[in-house]
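Morning - 2-acetamido-2-deoxy-beta-D-glucopyranose inputs below, output right after.
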Amino acid sequence: MAVPTKEEDEDPPISSTSLLSFDTDDCSTSIPPKPPFSSVIFTPLILVTCVSLSTAIIFAYLFFSHSSVSFISHVSRPLQKLKHPVVLLISSDGFRFGYQYKTDTPNIDRLIRNGTEAELGLIPVFPTLTFPNHYAIVTGLYPAYHGIINNIFLDPNIREPFTMASYDPKWWLGEPLWETVVNHGLKAATYFWPGSEVNKGGWTCPESLCKIYNGSVPFEERVDTVLNYFDLPNSEIPSFMTLYFGDPDHQGHKVGPDDPQITEAIARVDGMIGKLIQGLEARGVFEDVNIIMLGDHGMVGTCDKKLIFLEDLARWIKIPKDWIQSYSPLLSIRPPPSYSSKDVVTKMNEGLKSGKVKNGQYLKVYVKEELPDRLHYSESDRIPPIIGLIDEAFKVEQKSSKRNECGGSHGYDNAFFSMRSIFIGHGPKFARGRKVPSFENVQIYNMVTTILNIQGASNNGTSSFPKTILLPSH
Ligand SMILES: *[C@@H]1O[C@H](CO)[C@@H](O)[C@H](O)[C@H]1NC(C)=O
Ligand SMILES: *[C@@H]1O[C@H](CO)[C@@H](O)[C@H](O)[C@H]1NC(C)=O
Ligand SMILES: *[C@@H]1O[C@H](CO)[C@@H](O)[C@H](O)[C@H]1NC(C)=O
Ligand SMILES: [Zn+2]
């Protein structure tokens, strides 16, 4: 289980952006950090060799780059037909990392082979749920700061429920990409994305460029609409577009990640990517568009009665239903103000660790301030004071029932590999055939503003991150 850390996010730029370090890589790695005595004498020799080799390579490069020999591109490729950079952000909901190997995906493979891929997937934010993650992708903020801390929740100050159809701007904090883009006088278009229906700042969700969510709209229609934006006069073509597919999440919940229905759904999503590529090629703009294809989270099977019942804790503490904001896979509890959260947590954990609660060892409860820092899940009144971390594939319920528990779920700790999704970037700003280490999706915001050459709002991404992923401008 690889725990994402800040250090991992801040990996130094991959050396292929710099000719010198690229070509001397082999030399530098052959020098151990603490050379044993015998190699001390040889190190200077190796260094001298490296330096002279690099010099030779630089001269060779300067010589050939002035001739017509075509070199692997180290800078972003010039636009052929479009007059300004365009980013098309595509989400396939619940596209767990690895689904791309379930079946032939010739179209996604085209993006991967000629684009930049997070080799072991994209790391979602915690909780690994749809709304918190989609909104983290477009704001660069962790849920505690962008306000959408769950798919459904109560704000103790607003005292009304947030649902996935709440379009009042009071819920949606931070500055989503479509807002940043229009604030800079550029155009944005959204074919579905959580939060895109909300009027905020300069963004008014204009009818021709912004669709109100309706999951029944056929995927084909969504792709065709996006393609039509490229038929507009050049100056009218939106600089930023979103496209959203609710599959394979939809199937994943019903049948879990390893059912043939998932394989079918993947083939269908791949077909939509194919339709999109074809349409862009027909318009002569495929190589001009920066396509970012990703998912919001992964999926894990929840079969075999891997259940924990809160009722079983009654000997230690009674947890009534109305304290619970969500059960699974994010357990969040708001006891009445007369209770000490710390006390409730202590009693719950006592019970869970006692060996007398079925599957108790698979749940650990925290006051939110004591959750691991890497989850960034405490700095908001909206986050209930008590949060439970549930082990992969387990579920928490009030009490035993006859319900069928088999299916799939997500929302768990973002350190679980099963919660990872995919990241592929294809287009003028992305190197062809490049693999990069996994990163958290809060980095996407700065990546998009960098491609569009606009100043983004402050956020939780690392400002130096885009240059580790994108080709530098020429
Ligand atoms: C990758 O790009 C090159 C250069 O444009 C092109 O010739 C090739 O057909 C592309 N490969 C795929 C798999 O799309
Ligand atoms: C949602 O889309 C379907 C398919 O296009 C359409 O028949 C239906 O009327 C739409 N619903 C709403 C509320 O617009
Ligand atoms: C995230 O970004 C917000 C807005 O810039 C900032 O207030 C907050 O301190 C940041 N949090 C972390 C953990 O970086
Ligand atoms: Zn989702």
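Note: The domain at 86-301+415-469 is CATH 3.40.720.10 (Alkaline Phosphatase, subunit A).

O.
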